[in-house]
TrEMBL record:
This is Bifunctional protein FolD. The keyword Oxidoreductase applies. Catalyzes the oxidation of 5,10-methylenetetrahydrofolate to 5,10-methenyltetrahydrofolate and then the hydrolysis of 5,10-methenyltetrahydrofolate to 10-formyltetrahydrofolate. One of its GO terms (biological process) is L-histidine biosynthetic process. It comes from Hymenobacter ginkgonis.
Length: 302
């Protein structure tokens, strides 16, 4: 029996929440303009021609236009050397007009992503991937927070989901999502205050542990990994996965699959994020928010 009476009423609408945030940002940009100040400027470096990366970066540029930011996209072929990429990062670091920038991941195999991320000035690291920002986040100091993890916390807060004291099981320990979100959820940020369990590929009895969760955050990157048998009825389900699978029925030639088997799990869940339209749009909204904070020198005074 479905836990929810209406099949769609319990969807966690990330797209709408992201729109709300963009409207708030646009209002701030209007104030900056009225005060004769420059608008925030976000730059993105995109290496190669990965279809998914192209989509995300295009969405980021469109989102900048929506809120009134300036944006710059720097594109390079996947034969760019690591030294040349580091020189491009250094140029953005020095460019006073750029408030923040990201280097889209993944990078080609011959480039060390850690080295590139460490080369970004923490003040301009609007992805929140630099060890300085990660360290400050862990220490509870003001930091530019990684966009997907902070987007998950913000999404639940704005949707009125009470997380304080709840048991949250995070599946996946990536540097970008699983590890940082497990830290943020345990903090007092937006009254998150969860008791957190972090599961990964070596976890024993994973289904049994996930079944204990009041809140499940699925960030494994494996389509439909979370099945009905892993979900306690009435759980909150946050699906971070966006894997592209070929789909001849779609005009684009692909469809997006989350890390949760939605058809099976949605009837059991109290609330659940759809894919698309859940966590993905929040990632972009939080990137815009970080760019505003960087432009205002909120974390690192200018
Ligand atoms: N330096 C860096 N920073 C990132 O933040 C970063 C990255 N590299 N590499 C890849 C991942 C993935 N990511 C997404 C962002 C938005 C959507 C998004 O907006 N998704 C839409 C659908 C988009 C579509 O149609 O493909 C949705 O879920 O509704 C998805 C995924 C950011 N990432
Ligand atoms: Mg995402």
């Amino acid at each position: 029996m479905p836990h929810s009476e209406n099949a769609t009423a319990h969807l966690i609408d990330g797209k709408q929440t992201a729109e709300d945030i963009k409207v708030e940002i646009a209002a701030e940009v209007a104030h900056l303009l009225a005060a004769g100040q420059k608008v925030p400027h976000l730059a993105a470096i995109l290496v190669g021609h990965d279809g998914g990366s192209e989509t995300y970066v295009r969405n980021k540029v469109l989102a900048c236009e929506r809120v009134g930011y300036a944006s710059t996209l720097l594109r390079f072929d996947d034969d760019i050397t690591e030294a040349e990429l580091l020189a491009q990062v250094a140029a953005l670091n020095e460019n006073a007009d750029i408030d923040g920038f990201i280097v889209q991941l993944p990078l080609p195999k011959h480039i060390d992503p850690e080295k590139v991320i460490e080369a970004i000035r923490p003040e301009k690291d609007v992805d929140g991937f630099h060890p300085m920002n990660l360290g400050r986040m862990v220490a509870g100091l003001p930091a530019l927070l990684p966009a997907t993890p902070s987007g998950i916390v913000e999404l639940m807060a704005r949707q009125g989901i009470k997380t304080s004291g709840k048991h949250c099981v995070v599946i996946g320990r990536s540097n970008i999502v699983g590890t940082p979100v497990s830290i943020l959820l345990a903090k007092n940020l937006e009254n998150a205050n969860c008791t957190v369990t972090l599961c990964h590929s070596r976890t024993q009895n994973l289904p049994e542990i996930v079944r204990q969760a009041d809140i499940i955050v699925a960030a494994i990157g494996r389509p439909e990994f979370v099945t009905a048998d892993m979900v306690k009825p009435g759980a909150i389900v946050i699906d971070v996965g966006t894997t592209r699978v070929t789909d001849a029925n779609k005009k684009s030639g692909y469809s997006l699959k989350g890390d949760v088997n939605f058809a099976e799990v949605a009837p059991l869940a109290a609330r659940i994020t759809p894919v698309p339209g859940g966590v993905g749009p929040m990632t972009i909204a939080m990137l815009l928010l970080n760019t505003l904070r960087a432009a205002k020198g909120e974390v690192y005074p200018k």
